[in-house]
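Repro:
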Amino acid sequence: MTPPAPETPRLKIAVVGAGLGGLSAAWLLGRGHEVTLYERQARPGFTAASVTAPGSDERIDVPLRVFYPGYYPTLTRLYAALGVPSEPVSYAASFMGEDARLYFRYRNLRWGSRSIGVPAPQDLLLGPRARRIVAGLLRFHREMVPALARGDLAGRSIGEVVCGYPPEFVDGFLLPAICTVCTCSYEAARAFPAQVVVDYMARGLTRESVRRALQGADGVERLLRGGIPRLRCPAPIAGVRRQGRGVVLQLADGGEEHHDHVVMAAQANHARALLRDASDAEAAMLEGFRYQPVTVLTHTDPALMPARRRDWSPVNLRIAPGHAAPESTIWVNAVQPALRGREDVFQTVHPQRQPREGSLVGQARFERPVLDAGSLRALDALQRLHAEPDRRVWFCGSYAQAGIPLLESAVRSAHDVAERFGQGLG
């Protein structure tokens, strides 16, 4: 008779940071270990900036969060395990110039879980610029998807591989779209690894419906918190250091708490500041990730939308000279069905103009990781560090996985850490 396998010992694990990566890591690890989640803000960072819609009790995510299963497989599995209901939404987009008049638009044709983004015939009548964008987009798919499969894009930036494409497509569509998806500047978009951009587009973006959690980030957070018995919030951490075969968390109030392991779920630059005894390799890895500031305004001013209401799309990009990034304004009512028929509310990222006085519902500032050749090298270093024997300090977050730093990479990094303790999604 085969003896039973020995039980995995329960470990005392600290998770620092309650963004989606930290919440996911704490929920996963808490199924088999004694976990405490520490968050410096008064509520978990995942929903700390959320606001209430005017004239409603409906909550609005800040920033607005959507996903599509092809590029978010780990997030999709987590939502299934939690029982998070989701719904398909349109994320069609319009592109306008400084005069707020459209020069390109695509719409979503949806049936069931399928979706395809296409310009309607009347959109092609916007002029030759629109037709050149379509021609460039068709060429891009025709050339880049096979190039990705052959491995020809490795080590090359998206700016390099589209050299020679029509500027109407590159500057008027591709780079603004990358900036909007990745919440970054034009400069950062040009430096994006080409294989990451093409992989994102090839994973079903043009065939699958974009989805949102039915109850938004607040609903996801509630379900995750239900499996995290020890959430300390607010509980700012002043420093983390190793001691013997464990780690010590120094709290901002002067107290100390001891754990067997710590998962640093703060962004890389914050983790670097907290880790007081970082090795040279850890310091170099964390410093290899750069961040850019992002401002998000939630407001009710339609002046930041296309000039004609019939041109409004769920997502509306304004490309104007003299700005480091496109202004992206989401028509929240079109993406959050519970708000349809209510007062129009908008969310603007990288605002080039200020909403009118009295229309501001909320203002938030974030830092977003920049994806470039340096961050790819840092990711390789992170994997080597996590493979070290007897490691006690672990790292997770949207920066800590290959691909665009989105909800998927945050959850996948949490899953990969939890899996090392026998608590992955399975």
